[in-house]
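I hope you will forgive my troubling you with a question about protein structure. Here, with my thanks, is the record as I have it:
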Amino acid sequence: MRRRSTAQALALRSRIVLACAEGHSIAEVSRRLGIAPETVRTWRRRFLDRGLEGLCDEPRPGVPRKITDADIEKVIVKTLEETPKNATHWSTRSMAAATGMSQSTVSRIWRAFALAPHRSQAFKLSTDPLFIDKVRDVVGLYLDPPEKALVLCVDEKSQIQALDRSQPVLPMMPGVPERRSHDYVRAGTTTLFAALEVATGKVIGSLHRRHRAAEFKKFLTKLDREVPDDLEVHLILDNYATHKTPDIKRWLLAHPRFHLHFTPTSASWLNLVERWFAELTQKKLKRGVHRSVQALERDIRAWLTDWNEHPRPFVWTKTADEILDKVAAYCHRISDSGH
């Protein structure tokens, strides 16, 4: 009766039993608790007959269950192992037609077992023979960076298009979202080379019209100028060909404080600068309108300056073992994991 988590109905029935046990009459208990005498009589009698179990609700009458366990199993198996002959995935309507159930019943079964045939996710497993070593190397730099060193995540965002809408953008109004034409006019492209400082979130950027090894070498020279001379520099890069040309290798030999750490192939998600590129795309480029490459580059430089005034580092939390365990789980789920 005193437990806070007890349902109020069960607590009231307990009070009725305790009041009767103290010797009060049914009328007195009814008056004290503000309930009908018949209610007191009913729960008193049920407690005397069945004890504590008598205070619980009895099964309520209702329509007998129509959907059997076999019916539910049929829907689940069909969802997981078959596809409709005229589509790539099931809908509630097509499954209802195939099983003879109602659309709402199929929907309830899918929700109960967390099935969503209309959704899909893309993935690609790296085939890099040094995948494990590279994951441990890169994640180790994130979680336990070396002393007297700067860890930079470096990449280029190429082919950033200066797009001008074919018709004026209609501004947002109460009840009406901003509207823009679906087609656009291309005005040229630019490439942003960026180095994200893991510890602080600051970004060193450089814009070029092309993204060859020559431009990458210029960007490395810029990093060498801006990073204090007493710090070692660890660069996390992908496997793009311009990062490994003979000219770049000669530059690295002449600048021994630079150390390159390559992510595994098809594993750009290991490079934190990709997360920063996503911020740039979502907040500046996706809905931007630029009539020239120069206007696009001005906006990118302004956004970069604003970011560096209040930088926000992206904190890496997964250990290498957690990542490798998750990849192993994916391998077990796909049929050709042994190839």
Summary: The radius of gyration is 33 Å. The chain has three domains: 8-55, 69-112, 131-172+180-332.
